[in-house]
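Researcher: We're teaching a course module on how sequence relates to structure. For the next exercise, students receive a sequence and then see the predicted structure as tokens, so they can try to spot secondary structure elements on their own. Here is the exercise chain.
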Amino acid sequence: MTGTTEAEVGTPDGAAVTRLPDVPPGVPAPPYDRSRVTAGIVHLGVGGFHRAHQAVYLDDLLARGGDALGWGVCGVGILPADAAMRDALRAQDCLYTVVVKHADDRLEPRVVGSLVEYLLLPDDPHAVVERMADPAVRIVSLTVTEGGYHVHQVTGELDASDPALQADLVPGAAPTTTFGLLLAALRLRRERGVPPFTVLSCDNLQGNGDIARRMVAAYARLADPALGEWVASEVAFPNCMVDRITPVTRDGDREALAATAGLADRWPVVCEPFTQWVVEERFPLGRPAWEEVGVQMADSVEPYELIKLRLLNASHQAIAYLGHLAGHTYAHEVLDRDDFRRLLRGYMDLEATPTLHEVPGMDLEEYKATLLERFANPQIADTLARLCAFSSDRIPKWLLPVVRERLAAGGSVDHAALVVAAWARYAEGVDEQGRPIEVVDRLRGRVMAAAARHEEDELAFLRDPDLFGGLVDEPAFTEPYLRSLRTLRSTGADAALREVVG
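Model: And here is the predicted structure for the students to work with:
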């Protein structure tokens, strides 16, 4: 995702457009006085998803006034590349447009005002730490991707081998990572006698709050064992489940916004109509009244997150690699094909659903049907390339737990095995027309090296215990995996798909 300058914003010739923060009539905008909104939340990793999801719920709440005005957001960019977001938001007084794309071609724009401040960590690490140490900040939320928690894929423990993590442990070092920043801010609050903020992970990880607590506490112990124990015992890390498909913003989205709403936004965010947020009730310093704007507050989010991770997220993986290899670009193109729909329903019905628990008031059959409708929305134009990215952080967390549970129960895993085989074929880095595939992955070199050995060792891709544990030694998995991989490599994705779904 990249930003644009005002000169790069595409607008039709002669179109009358208004640039933020001046909002044209007819576009919903914050009805509250933003000068009265203060930041009670610091959010790390301000991407499209946060702006289309958590920030929208807060914008709805701020519109109610009263105590809600203390729950504005101070966004923080962690990486130097986030300077583009900093520049876009600061030029617009941190206002931006969320455009809901309906399947019937309707565009529903609204201007969101809950983000009231934006800081870039590389600009001034000290200022960011001080902002997080401010007693007014009661929640620090995160969308830093699945790989941002440094979890060893097999042991589940902290993997602190990242040189940047190690550098942040040096006494007096200015933090450059999410963990280094959390550690510095929590240490400062402890030294000043300020109660610790609540850390709210909003990433797609099962038990995201529990994982964040284990990883941050383990990291803190590396710097100071006593600090690590304090983090583990005194800092709240509630779990939550988030859901809204939010594709990358393109120039065409900016142009459409200018043409249809008369609004020029450097970096709008586009999303589907569906949205869901389930949050565990654990906030010692208080929280926004999210339940007033549709957030589900729960004693446990596990049943909800299992449904979402194993049905929605894993299903995205099911169509991503096969769809790309079959020559498609977007998710909705794949959903136009009956064989891909059968693949998804076969995986969801036969493999994922038996691993899920019932949730009162939630109809799984209706949820699965809704997923197919959401994936098929042509206006979202969700790219398969986006879904294919960071596979090594996603497949082990979303799909492989289903595989292991089905194997333990003596069930078949043909659909899931095809998905993993398609990932292995995709990681070879060349498509069926001989064109290069841009593999985007934290472990890119490792997975591509394994895939390059397919000629000499058909199981080479599965021999990485950090990703697959002992699945390479499970014939009930390797047999359907090898059938699919051989067909993918010899005949192609369409043939491999037919073998599984008929």
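Model: If you want an answer key for the exercise: The radius of gyration is 23 Å. The chain is about 45% helix and 10% strand.
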